[in-house]
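Repro:
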Amino acid sequence: MARKGRARRGKLKVNVYLAFAIFVAVGVATWSLDQSVRLALMWLVFLSFALSYASAQKLQFSYTLADLARGAVAGLLVSVPVLLLARDFLIITSQRLFPADNLLSLMWIVVLIMPAVEAVYFRGLVHKEKGLWPSVLLYAGAGVVYFLPVTWNEHLPILAALVCGMGLLGFVYSYVRGMYGLVSSLVCQALAHLVLLVAPSVVLGLTRGVA
């Protein structure tokens, strides 16, 4: 009986689409809450499913220094050109989506928490169980849930641009995951977030300081 129980647990798989549906429901239900609280609750959905099924899915966290370097290079290559072309847009986006009080809080949220939670769910569970394109499409769909409350009404074209951007980034993260592993993908996303969402605020602060 014990062996049968272990066998059943070993075959247990997370329903990634159910997890995403719950994520969307939480995002809608918390529409009017403070954005920081809302994001924390939505990420908790992904984290709960990931932790509940991580052992059954056998997520691979092995890596080499070369894999980490490749992930970092990919993150810089995909993000630095965007920063150079759309710095002001990125500043506004970061302030609306992540209304952190200080730079340290912003870094904690977008460079550590967000990449870790999203990497485990989208690139760990979804990519492993459903493949590259479902992970990319669900990641882009998450952008709708993230950004819709802060782009409602007059900013819907901005929402479309943000979702397309998340789709492209999701493809890069998933490609890196397929080539070099989950941890490399996490490093890629963390570096991209650092450049796209933190660096513009740093530049703005330095500019104001000089002025």
